[in-house]
Amino acid sequence: MSNNLRFKTSKFIDETYRVSFKFNNKTYFGFKGDTLASALLANGIHLVGRSFKYHRPRGIMTSGSEEPNAIIQLHDNSSRTEPNVRATEVEIYEGLVASSQNCWPSVNFDIGGINNLLSPILPAGFYYKTFMWPASFWEKYEYFIRKSAGLGKSPKVADPDIYEHKYIHCDVLVIGAGISGIMAAKMAAKNGFKTLLVDEKSYLGGSSIYDNSEFSKINNQITSSWLEKEINEISKLENLEIKIRTSVAAYHGYNFLLARENLTDHLPINQRENKVRQRLLKIRAKKVITATGSIERPLIFDNNDRPGIMLSSAIKKYIDLYGVACGENNILFTNNDTVYETAMSLIQRGIKINAIIDNREQIDSKISYEVEKNNIKIYKGYSVVDTYGYRRINKISIMKLSKDGQTVIGDKTKLNCDCLGVSGGWTPAVHLFTQSGGKLKFRDEDQIFIPNVYPSDQISIGSCNGEFGLDEIIKNTLSSIKKFLNIDNSEYKNIETVSGLNLLKRNIWLLPSDKPVGKTKSFVDYQNDATAKDIKLALREGFRSIEHVKRYTTTGMGTDQGKLGNMHALGIISETAGTKMGEHGTTTFRPPYTPLTFGTIVGRNVGEFFDIFRRTPIHDWHVANNAEFENVGQWKRAWYYPKDNENMHQAVQRESKAARDSAGILDASTLGKIDIQGTDASEFLNRVYTNAWSKLAVGKCRYGLMLNEDGMVYDDGVTTRLGENHYIMTTTTGGAANVLGKLEDYLQTEWPELDVYLSSVTDHYATISVCGPNSKKIVSKVIPDLDLSDEKFPHMSFKNAKINNIKCRVMRISFTGEHSYEINIQANFGKSVWEKCMEAGKDFNITPYGTETMHLLRAEKGFIIVGQDTDATLTPIDLQMDWIVSKKKYDFIGKRSLYRSDTIREDRKQLVGLLTENPEEVLEEGAQIVADIKKSPIEMLGHVTSSYYSPNLKKSIALGVVKGGKNMLGQKLIIPMENKNINVTVADPVFLDKEGERLNAKL
Amino acid sequence: MFLINCPFCGEREQSEFKAGGEAHIVRPKQPTELSDDEWAEYLFMRKNIKGVQFERWNHVHGCRKWFNMVRDTSNDQIKAVYKMGEKPPVK
Ligand SMILES: [Zn+2]
Predict the structure, then answer these.
(1) One-character DSSP codes across A147-210
(2) Which of A23, A49, A770, A958 has a C-alpha 20 to 30 A away from that of A139?
(3) Per the CB < 8 Å rule, is B32 touching A455?
(4) pLDDT band with cut points at 50, 70 and 90 for residue A1000
């Protein structure tokens, strides 16, 4: 490798700080300040990866976030591994390990390279057309495709780094700290606006900070010197916060933006411990100034993708900012003046330029004359028609362009080079502007899209707004910021600028070749290997909309979202179709602008903080007593309490039997509780429940069924009348928040005349349910002062009571069909009362049971669980619960829907009980129910909703919904399973104690 | 993400709110008098306009109040917010 690629002239590189790093298992050295790309180039390495489809060798093409080729895997096989990282954005640090992606077995010998030879048979849409048929073959193709293609490898272990989210509110957000962004930030901050300036780079100033050209000056100083002083000044401003290494990922409506701030990625690994790696900034700005600059366009010609072919602006940046020469024998190829600036930078350092190929016949600018003076041959009106060299470019051939630019003419000349800098002009970086909902317009003179209609309080300035000359940028920035911020003082007086560039270009989207059409490989999207030929094929096959062409050819679908080639794709489409630019639409740039890590997106919401979960006041007791938990909504509920080596089935059988034989205890604290007060509370309940409430006496409880307006069951629960104008409603655990929301909705929007107030009190109370034949004896020990006689305290009534002077409410309600009591006490006493009940129940084998046993016990009684036995398609009539629907009430939510033509159909799915022929056979919940398995296709009649083995009935029981099931009592049906058909009989859904004797049994 | 001016609390993030569909659809006072078609009109039919639309919103993670909003769905501009029962301040 050559040593004369590094020029120690850059103030951005610290030559005293040598950094070693590994690339593809080989150790290299760079300096602090280098990116991985600049360090590799300084080591003479261009070939860094393989392309996605043809596996062609690819090199570093750019110097920024637009890089399509140099995407690498960081720290392979470590917990910090990260795929698809752009080498142009990685700042090197001691210990950096990077490897090429997309190549197997190695970057220099890649088996997928055979795709390149096969490329005539790999046109656009090839994967869709070929590998999808026959469908059964996909599995076979997939293995090889995935092995030899694919973008990087995902990590296999947890990310060790810390991420966080932060809100920022500011008056003015300036995106991009190039020359116009710096000026805008200064004007805003100095005029009293709280300003935030962000830039994705590690330094401020954009490309102007290394612009040392004699041809563009500000106040007679070279641009970089003038700008350095400006940066110095703004860094002291109090009103201005500056964030570097911060990339705006998304620009949403109402000036809400997301940005990723990179805090530790540039540090040696051992200095990152306990530091936040990346921060997602959620920025709400009153005003946004977008100064995101522009991206240089490549040129589209045959074999324009070889390693060593780079953007000319990147070559300039590598030499000016990093002091790295990308080649020792350079050729520049252009349709505009940009490459002459690059040429001057190379000339100044004595780096050889073999030739400049310029599409234009006439070139007229100070800088081009200066380049010519240095004896550099400029081929005017020429174009590159082909390139040579497999792992690195070594030759090009050029030909003269015809007058109309559609063909090449004359003799072919071959020129040697090891680096080819290309420039097709500039594309404004309007990505964020369009994300915000902004509308673009097309400017014909230089074939660019620029911001036109702003959807929020924002403005674009500088080259992202289509301003390219230094004098134009400065003049327009000053005037538009003054207007935008409504300020008089621009902070800049008598500013004089000189610009040496001529902005004219000769735009040819697809450069002509001497080869026949179809024999060229002119890449438009480098990352996804989409060529001009593919785009033309898509048009021939009838695709017109850019969004369709994009998907068919995969142009712009890579991780770079086609930042380089999208414009050319549009250009080739409009040229081929003979339409105006923009007529087929412009592609939509979607967030994020550059890829985000998952860590940044989730922030601190990882592990136990991924989602909040709620614990009952008795939770610790359940944990201490070996409970297994299940998630119900956000709640952790005790599921069952295995003893010794019991499995779930054994535990549930034991718990269920104990509850009916003697006593069971359940933590029901998660049930939703809504406190309802007001003079119209009874009327309100009349309107929201299907049954009547006016006559419910104070001190009594009633079960209610709540419907949606469409007549379908929505929620259920017991409501107790605590006083004349005071109720407490219980809801299902999962439905609590929605029920409250629905009730509030009706109260506020439909019935504002009702005097009713609702409060959620779910968390305020612990609810302990004691059930079973011995429940009365146990509760009388816990609350000795309470008269538990059936006369004084009958089923479905409530009493105020005290336990150790603490007030509590006791309801005699039952979800198991057993004689039971529900004690509601202030939440912080929940655990001690639970323990009291356990102590009092010791002699009665009181058995804690979880949700699974609760489900089994209620199924024995045929009680529904909303959300398990119902699914928003069942009316109370479908559930055979006609008894709870008031015929007398004039109206309630959902009433009218109960006799719509659809809801009165006889053949609706209806809830039934199911008994298996073999009493030991337990059905699978969700299994289909059919009548005739010989018919084809088999008609599905319904499905099993609940199924258990009942230890109390000593047989399998199930609930299910069956079409017309109401009239099928005793009928035989079939549950077809994978290996067998199970015979069942339709039964009454109440399997146990239909008369309800157990509730009122004399104990 | 919208910045919504709750008529009771002031400007808050959209994430605190829940959208509740088309506004100014009054629940019939006498549903039992309605034909299936008339009831279906109330129950199911919503406009979903491209352009200026009147919507219900709920400050669900705030004051829990329902209110109305006039929003242009083509560009997400909120033209006005106003309390339930009030007349829309814009057309
Ligand atoms: Zn509010």
Answers:
(1) HHS-S----SS---SEEEEEEEEEEEEEE--SHHHHHHHHHHHHTT--EEEE-SSSSSSGGGGG
(2) A49
(3) no
(4) confident
Q: How far apart are CA A569 and CA A576, in angstroms?
A: 11
CB-based contact B66 A749, cutoff 8 Å: yes
Q: A655 in a domain, yes or no?
A: no
In the chain, the amino acid numbered B6 is C
Q: Is residue A657 part of a domain?
A: no
The CATH number of residue A571's host domain is 1.10.10
Indicate if the pLDDT at residue A278 is higher than 90: yes
Question: Residues A298, A562: contact at Cβ < 8 Å?
Answer: no
Residue A214 confidence class, pLDDT cut points 50, 70, 90:
confident
Q: Which residues of B touch A750 (CB under 8 A)?
A: 26-27
Q: How far is the CA of B58 from the centre of ligand 1 (A)?
A: 8
The answer to whether the beta carbons of residues A913 and A862 sit under 8 Å apart is yes
Q: Is the separation of the CB atoms in A412 and A382 below 8 Å? A: no
Q: Which residue range(s) make up the domain with A286?
A: 164-294+428-499
Cite the DSSP H helix spans in A349-388: 366-373
| Region of residue A979 (phi > 0: left; psi between -120 and 50: alpha; otherwise: beta) | alpha
Same domain, A130 and A184: no
For residue A349, is pLDDT > 50? yes
> Of A530, A558, A593, which marks where a domain is finished?
A593
The reply to whether A341 and A251 lie within a common domain is no
Tell which phi-psi region holds residue A245, choosing left (phi > 0), alpha (psi between -120 and 50) or beta.
left
- Per the CB < 8 A criterion, the answer to whether A102 and A151 are in contact is yes
Residues A414 and A541 reside in one and the same domain: no
The answer to whether A75 and A69 are in contact (CB under 8 A) is no
- Structural domain ending residue among the three candidates A499, A529, A548: A499
- φ, ψ of residue B36 to 5 degrees: the values are -55, -45
Among A138-142, A289-293, A547-551, A991-995, which stretch is predicted with the lowest mean pLDDT? A138-142
Record the tokens describing residue B90, joined without a space.
């814009």
A473 part of a folded domain? yes
Chain B interface residues facing chain A, Cβ-Cβ under 8 Å?
1-3, 13, 18, 20, 26-27, 30-32, 34, 36, 39-40, 43, 56, 58, 60, 64-66, 75-76, 84-85
ipTM of the complex: 0.97
Report pLDDT digits (tens) over A314-326. Answer: 999 999 999 999 9
Report domain B3-83's class: alpha beta
Contact A534, A543 (CB under 8 A): no
Instruction: Express each pLDDT in B20-37 by its tens digit.
Output: 999 999 999 999 999 999
Is the pLDDT reported for residue A483 higher than 60? yes
Residue A651 in any domain: the answer is: no
Report how far residue A351's alpha carbon sits from residue A319's, in angstroms, rounded to the nearest whole number: 10
| pLDDT given for residue A562 in this prediction | 85
CB-based contact A741 B30, cutoff 8 Å: no
Residues A267 and A170 in one domain: yes
Residue A657: left if φ>0, alpha if ψ -120 to 50, beta else—which one?
alpha
Mark whether A718 and A793 lie in a shared domain: yes
The answer for residues whose C-beta is within 8 angstroms of residue A221's C-beta and 6 or more apart is: none
Domains of chain A: total = 6
Domain harbouring A186, CATH code:
3.50.50.60
Residue A22's SS3 state is strand
Q: Do A675 and A773 have their domain in common?
A: yes
Q: CB count, 10 Å around CB of A531?
A: 27
Mean pLDDT of A570-588: 83
Contact B1 A254 (CB under 8 A): yes
Q: Specify the pLDDT at position A326.
A: 97
Q: Residue A552: what pLDDT?
A: 86
pTM, rounded to two decimals: 0.89
